[in-house]
Amino acid sequence: MSRVQGKNTKPELIARSLLHQLGYRFTVNGPKNKRLPGKPDIVLPKYKTVIFVHGCFWHRHPNCKYATTPKSNQEYWNAKFKRNVERDQTNQRTLKKLGWQPLILWECELKDLEKTIAKIIAALPRTTAFSLPEELEDLALVAETKATYGKRK
Ligand SMILES: [Zn+2]
User: Fold this and answer.
1) What is the pTM of this model?
2) Residue 106's beta-bridge partner residues?
């Protein structure tokens, strides 16, 4: 059970790869990654958007099977989780006040590329370099249609 906060975790690499294929430019080590509230994993300056790749356990993904609570020391864990969630909420509020759109990509969602693409496409305008491998292009269109018409569960 390691804390997903280091750089280059697998979910982060998936997120970056998808963004890259969708034609978005972003930074992962720039000054804004270090200075903006919550130290966003990915910054897209052109779209004033920041992306957090959140581990479901530590950041308490709502209704997620990975957001479990250890059986022992529940008081300790609940207090810790509460602080994490509050910190995330504060960071997001501050980012919005500063004119940045925060986007959360959950670790479990990144196992589902279609869902992740839908989320990205819903939050960001299309780029001119928007390109995906053929099999993903189909997926993206499906995802986009779902996002546009709100046919999500
Ligand atoms: Zn989750």
Assistant:
1) 0.82
2) 54
Q: If you measure from the C-alpha of residue 12 to the centroid of ligand 1, how many angstroms do you get, rounded to a whole number?
A: 14
Number of domains in the chain: 1
- Measured in Å, residue 90 CA sits from the centre of ligand 1 at 20
Q: Using one digit for the tens of pLDDT, what is the confidence trace for 126-141? A: 777 766 666 666 666 6
| Structural domain span for residue 93 | 10-149
Phi then psi dihedrals of residue 49, to 5 deg: -125, 140
The residue written with tokens 């970056």 in the block is 16
| CATH code for the domain of 64 | 3.40.960.10
Reported as half-sphere exposure (CB side, CA atoms, 13 A), residue 118 has a value of: 19
CA of 126 relative to ligand 1 center, distance in Å: 26
